Amino acid sequence: MLKENTFKIGKTTRQVEANLSLSLKIDRFFSKPVYRKGLDTITIIFFILVVVGPIINIFSTIFLNLPSIYSDVFADDLIGNLKWINILNSLGISFSVATIAVIADIFLAFPTSIILTRYNFRGKKILDALVDLPMAVPTSALGFSILLFWGIFGINPGIPLIILGHIVFTFPYIVRNMKIVLEKSDTLYEDAARTLGASGITVFRTITLPMMKEGLIAGAILAFTRSLGETGATLILSGLVETAPILIVGFRRQLELPAASLLAGILIAISIALLFSIKFFTRRGNFPVKRVLPNLERFLSHRYLRHFRDGITLIFLVIIILIPSLFIIWQLTEGNFIEGLFSQDYKWAYLYVSFMASIQIGALAVVINLIFGIPFAFIITKRKWGKIITFLDTMLDVPIAIPSAALGFAIFLFWGPAGLGLFQPGFFMILFVHVTFSFPYMVRPIIGVLESSNVGVEEAARTLGASNLTVFRKITLPSIKQGIIAGCIMVFTRSLGETGATIVVMGSIRTIPVLIVDWVEANAYSSAIFASTVVIIFSAFLIFALRAVRRRGGK
Amino acid sequence: MPTIELIGVTKTFNEGKVLAVDDITLKINDGDYVFLLGPTGCGKTTTLRMIAGLEEPTNGKVFIDGKDVKGIPPEDRDMGFIFQHFEIFDHLTVWENVTFGLEMRGYDDDYIVQQAEKALTTVDLLEYVDEYPSIFGNPGLQKLGIARAIATGAKILIMDEPLGSLDPKVSNVFRHELRNLIKDLGLTAIHVTHNQEEAMAIADQIIIMRAGKILQMGTPYDLYESPNSIFVANFLGETNFLQGFVLKLLEDAKMEMWIRLGGPRITCNNINLQFDLDDNIVIAFRFEDVYLFPEDYGFEKSVYDWSGVQFFKASLEDSRFVGATKRFYLFLDNGDKFLSIKPGSYEENFVPGETLIIGIHIDDIHVFKAPSDMLYETSLS
Amino acid sequence: MVKIDLKNVSKSYGKFIALKNISLQVKDKEYFIILGPTGGGKTTLLKIISGLVKPDDGEVLFDDIDVTRMTPGERNIGFMFENYALFPHMNLVDNISYSGRVNARNPEMTKKLVEQVLMMTLLTGRNEALPEELSGGMKQRVALCRSLLNLEQTKLLILDEPLKALDAGLRMNLRRELLLMAKSKQLELTVVHVTNEEEEAMMVADRIAVINQGELVQVGTPHDIYYYPKDLFVANFMSEINYFDGICIREESPKWDIYKMSGQKDNFYTQIHEESSPILIDLNTGDQFAAYIKNDVSNEYNHGDKILLVVRANHMKIRLGNRLNQKKNSFFGKIIRRKFMGVFYRFEVLIGINNQEKTVVVTIPATSEVHNKFKENLEVTIYFPKELGIVFKHPGNKVVNEVIKLE
């Protein structure tokens, strides 16, 4: 027993090692660099197989099969280049819809994010949660709700309805990004501008806006890619119109693989280009700061005009976003869903099976992403590999940016019968797809907390004699717990709501959002309403859980 | 007993692009309280982190207790480390914080309790053992940081700006407590700071660093009384600088210098005869070494011995009362400005604009070669 | 021309009371310091003066005009923030000329002014630099210029810890420069300057307001605040102190003098003798001690009152050996620590008082050679002139501990 700690550098620990508790001994053993390198390698291989592989594969497939794609898409014996024209049309529609939706969102999101960050009022938290809700709810349920709401006003499926739908579910992405920047940016600069004589609007235009530029652009591009890739709600709202992801689903259903892979490739390429432009544009480009119209802006900054603006914003927020998203719950009381569900075709059984499938897939995706997500987040934040990290960091966002139907198709090509042949469409392939597209949702929050977590505390623990793994277990893990839980909930909600990729790879299994699409298409409205309500409430519960976690993390 | 020795230690970052520490060699004796002092970015923290094992030197060797510690990770170096931002584990209680290092070393429970209680008593925190650190303000957190570092019984204590996050008033009081504690425990301590007052107040030895190199090391008294460069003279304590050139070489290794633009002529030492006729030089003298006399002072009646003191005239611009001291702002005919400080209860009431006789003892004047950019040398930005 | 009146200003954030009923006046062309520990309400007070924060109660008057409801822009003041708050997305010139542009002042005029201040501050040639490319000292100058350019008719400059982020040497120089700038004939500013460093406060202030825990403790010249602190907190904040528990004796008055009045040079003590009167104290050492209290509070001290005697470390004097018989106001003890601190030597002396050991801190100038005599473990007598003893009503041990530990 070593009582007196005599100073013997490098020996102290070995002398007392016999007395260390088992867990500390294990930590010490596995803290050797070789184990760390091993884990890093496995994680990187996972990432390459799951995210990078399918994407490279789809481009190489297109490249290798150019002749067959050409003959199929551009010079078919029967229909000539009709498919290509279809592809171009669908791309045109998708881009117009996304552009209009994002612009509308930005106009609404500016005042909303300011109301949610700079004002204090009763019910702010509830409003905040409601604004976030469309992000968590499966888009097909959301789309159905919107269909029912605007149906009252005689708006039938078609492009206007698609736009209304896309405005709703991309809105939270923009507001959230603006809010993050506004919360982070100190009011210090605004105060400074005010003491220098700037009025409210002048401060906003010359100080706040330029400083939230990054968040604005990031949010806009994210919303744009989400809109570009959305499938579930669009299937319900589109009627006869075909957006690009829907066309992929169509091609896939008809087993038109060459056309599907071309369209998927184009979508993926565009999305990746957009993703890179985030980093490019946020650094360049500026808002006009120099020209100032002080008197006009001072007039516009008047208190009453500000109240007017806030009022209009709230009205639009309620009519365009909030009521359409929740309209379906009210509809539940109208139709007779019990009759629909318990009719002869056993809809309740389908509902049960789909619900369980969704939950199983979601849970497994969470577990797998947890296992690889934590080491991956560590690689991104802690390893100093220079350019490799930059590459991994950018690639990590790719699954978020590219349309899920295209991603699903890429994975189908890579792992399915046409590629490696390891999986058939069905449960495991759905799981695989879900793991891929939700991976960034797990890793990003963990990276977030790791970056803001304090390296000094870890160093303090090491100088006190803790080995690397002990530091991770006792110091790092408790401080990033919030991020991990947030990541898990995000992955689960995303998995629960996903439609596009699932349809591409599902085989005979139906997840909940797909089931809703099916029922709506089959005009089984009352059952679809019930199913939608169930998932909306379930998602709302998840989003409140997520916010509770975040709030505790903030303290 | 613990000694620390660095031999030719160099550290570069970003693949050699940034040179943080440039070939330094130093030795720290057992039981010394040593300061690494220098402006922000001079490499002092990097040096400290290399000693603690949080960075590996690019070149050179670190010996602790005569043993090369290359490759030994920080957890095996057995040192206490106190951080500027405390780095307290806020998810653990005060007690768990303090016992963390002891647990890691696998001591038995009795010893852990005994050591932790001793450490907490030392910093006066024993009553808070079951609380979480969030109840503390900065001073409390740093006390806890100290308790955590000394509880393991490590004989070397390493501190990175330990008082830097405290209010000036608090840190002024706290620094004496810190020194007393370290001396009572008989630790070898290394303390990094950019605050020269703090270093002067509590160090046994000060090592002054700048741009990755060691400029001078020694006791506070040695550094204060015989700085080896303009930088050190300016950095430690408050110093007047006047520029001029060598007018005449005198006997006894002395010389007469002429302050620029027709200022007064001042005789100063020319140790080792290092300056020659017409050399541009800078003389440096401490604020408190400037004697002030009214113009009609009767030196012939004075009981004091004024031999070795230089006299010249200057005008008083302003004086300010600063508590323990009174500051007199003076200027010469050529416009050069300098200061004198006296105790706060100094009784002479000179009025601004008055002409005074200034006295400076020849041994209080330090002479340096005039640098090409005086402004840069004396401003630390 | 601007003077500021604060009348009964209060502000709280939820349950936290930031300011409690503050009334104070800043005179025209005055360099006014607000001094206090971090979190004491100093910055809130500045924000109320500048209009960034509306007070819950009370009024703010500039030149007798109520500005409580005015926006910061309408008050037309210069405000320099703690971390400078330079707009990160604007270059140096755009930062400085910002107020000119948003107030639609004559662009030619603004341009000329900007060029002028750039020249004055040695920043010419860096016009296009972004704030992140500047050093700490440069940022400070840019921030100062930016706030100065907003001054039109209201010549009020507000500085929130303007030197905090700078290295010590630079800070010393800039203190003086700030003062000279404010007092210069062209500007003649009224300055309100917040700091938590007592030395900085005394070095520049015409008057100092000490604020602690949202309350205004004392307002006065540096001399007043140093020699006649209103309570233990102020006394302790201005320099290192020693304190002793004692009992007030009013039945007799001290018959002895430490310093004989020696003619014309004793202005310092003469002033104290005029403003205050002697009081006797029993410290339970078997000897009587004496101190001075201001005439206007002299009546408040009754015979037998518990009091606290405070003596600043630099007012303590030290002699070798036991001289209790020769020196009044004296303690006998042993030097336990001795430390060279540059301008001063600092001694910790262990004395016995009231059957307990107590450490007393004594600092003496390092310039005279006498300090060489005082080595560790030597027996010494320490004493203090009765004119420099400060007396308070005893606030209770709890308060004493709180103030001394500063937690």
Verbal overview:
The complex is a heterotrimer of chains A (555), B (381) and C (407). Chain A has 555 residues and is an all-alpha fold. Chain A folds into two domains: 17-64 and 337-555, MetI-like (MetI-like fold, Orthogonal Bundle), CATH 1.10.3720; 74-334, MetI-like (MetI-like fold). Helix content of chain A is 79%, strand content 0%. Chain A has helices at residues 12-16, 22-30, 33-64, 66-74, 82-118, 124-136, 139-152, 159-184, 188-195, 200-211, 213-229, 232-237, 244-253, 257-283, 294-300, 303-332, 337-341, 347-382, 387-401, 404-415, 427-452, 455-463, 468-497, 500-505, 512-521, 525-554. In chain A, helix 5 (82-118) crosses helix 16 (303-332), helix 13 (244-253) packs parallel to helix 20 (404-415) and helix 19 (387-401) packs across helix 21. In chain B, strand 11 and strand 12 (254-259) form a beta hairpin. Chain B has two domains: 4-233, Rossmann fold, CATH 3.40.50; 238-372, RNA polymerase II/Efflux pump adaptor protein, barrel-sandwich hybrid domain (OB fold (Dihydrolipoamide Acetyltransferase, E2P)), CATH 2.40.50.100. Chain B has 381 residues and is α+β, with helices and mostly antiparallel strands. Chain B has helices spanning 44-52, 94-104, 109-122, 138-151, 168-185, 196-202, 220-225, 230-235, 374-378, and strands spanning 4-13, 18-28, 33-37, 59-64, 67-68, 80-82, 156-160, 188-193, 205-210, 213-218, 239-250, 254-259, 265-269, 280-286, 290-294, 309-322, 325-331, 337-343, 355-361, 366-369. In chain B, helix 2 (94-104) runs parallel beside helix 4. In chain B, 46% of the residues are buried. Chain C is of the alpha+beta class and 407 residues long. Chain C has two domains: 4-227, Rossmann fold (3-Layer(aba) Sandwich); 240-405, RNA polymerase II/Efflux pump adaptor protein, barrel-sandwich hybrid domain (OB fold (Dihydrolipoamide Acetyltransferase, E2P), Beta Barrel), CATH 2.40.50. Chain C is built from twelve helices and 20 strands. In chain C, the strands form four sheets. In chain C, strands 6-7-8-3-9-10 form a six-stranded mixed sheet, with helices on both faces. In chain C, strands 13-12-11-14-20 form a five-stranded antiparallel sheet. Chain C is elongated and about 80 Å long. Chains in contact: A-B, A-C, B-C. Chains B and C meet through helix 5, helix 6, helix 7, strand 16 and strand 17 of B and helix 6, helix 7, helix 8, helix 9 and strand 16 of C.
